Amino acid sequence: MDQQITAEKLRIISEALEDAEERAMRFRERHDHVFSQVCSYYLCKQQLLEALAESRVAMNEALGFAVGLRKMQMEILCSYPDEGDGLFLHRLAENTSLGYS
Fold first, then answer.
1. Per-residue pLDDT tens digits for 45-69
2. Which pLDDT belongs to residue 101?
3. End-to-end Cα separation, the chain, in angstroms
4. Which of 36, 63, 69, 95 could join 17 via S-S bond, C-beta 3.0 to 4.6 A?
5. Model confidence at 35, in pLDDT bands (50, 70, 90)?
6. 21-28 contact pairs (CB < 8 A, 24+)
7. Is pLDDT of 100 > 80?
8. How far apart are CA 95 and CA 90, in angstroms?
9. What are phi and psi for residue 99, nearest 5 degrees?
10. In this model, does residue 94 exceed pLDDT 60?
11. CA-based torsion, 44, 34, 47, 57: positive or negative
């Protein structure tokens, strides 16, 4: 029963982590786009600089959220140090987006 609960927690965290990482990538793309606009015009207009700063803050927040999810995921995985649970975690990792083996 504990393994089922753990598997469900890891599944939920894995889904949230995937979404968070995708969101972080979108923020990074937006940041890169704004930065390229600043560079291509050779003019540091205040609006572009503000957009770039806001984009950086959003990107850092998204990455921080993804890191927090990854830490939570690792804490759950590390809470099963028994070798008997190793097979369970290995199978779980194969069936989720964790990618650990």
1. 677 778 888 888 998 999 999 999 9
2. 36
3. 22
4. 69
5. confident
6. 21/66, 23/62, 23/65, 24/59, 24/62, 24/63, 24/65, 24/66, 27/55, 27/58, 27/59, 27/62, 28/59
7. no
8. 9
9. 80, 10
10. no
11. negative
Residues 66 and 21: their CA atoms lie apart, in Å, by 6
What number of CA atoms fall less than 13 Å from residue 75's CA on the CB side?
8
For 89, counting Cβ atoms within 10 Å of its Cβ (0-12 exposed, 13-18 middle, 19+ buried), the class is: buried
- Return the residue matching tokens 């998204």: 62
